[in-house]
Write a structure and sequence with these properties.
DNA-binding transcription factor activity, TF_FadR/GntR_C, Arc Repressor Mutant, subunit A, 2 domains, single chain, transcription, mainly alpha, 71% helix, 2% strand, Four Helix Bundle (Hemerythrin (Met), subunit A), globular, DNA-binding, DNA binding
Amino acid sequence: MGCYNFSKETALTKAEVAYELVRERVLRGDLTPGAVIPQASLAHELGISTTPLREALRRLMTEGLVELDAHRDARVTRLTVEEARDLIEIRRSLDPLAAGLAAERRTRDDLALIRETAHELLPLRTDPGTAELLTHRRFHVAIYSASHNQVLVQTLDSLWDKADRYRRLALETGRTEADLDRTHTEHLELVDAIAAGDSGTATSVMLAHVEASLGARAVARLSSDAAQPAARSLRGIRGARV
């Protein structure tokens, strides 16, 4: 890959372009969790010095996507059971709130966009592309936006990028047809409840949707992965005592 062409830049600085490109690679999984970011080669690839790249990495650090240490090394933030759990705990409260408010406040244009994005939804299977993930984001953002609570919309939108990394992790084990059918049904029920102005149903369907989400599956997987070394260690201790 050649150097990035900055000649057509308008308002974007080199640091901003580097931020967008590195961020995309992290979220897409090209730079995997825990991986060291090769700053020299990456800066060369982008056609910039390491100074704007470091500025971009510091910005990504504030978003929790990159870790920087005292030796100037940069690493993609690892996925943890604690962060996965935190994200689900927040979504259990905020997503149903947004859906309930959307049912109460949606306009005709809001409802048209919700229906349009629902129609475009693609099932998420193993290793989804950016376009597939984007269709789900557009659908949920359409619901968030229909709440007409800007603080809520901004909060949920800021959580989405972190959550996508955990969705990818959960999808590594695949999804059954029953999983896909349930998710599809929940999407349709959300559209119907919001269209009918049924806040209670929209709230309960969204809560069920979050409880069975890929994010929730990621919590279960990471918890299981964390428990296995502990179990092996405990078996070793018991064996040593025999």
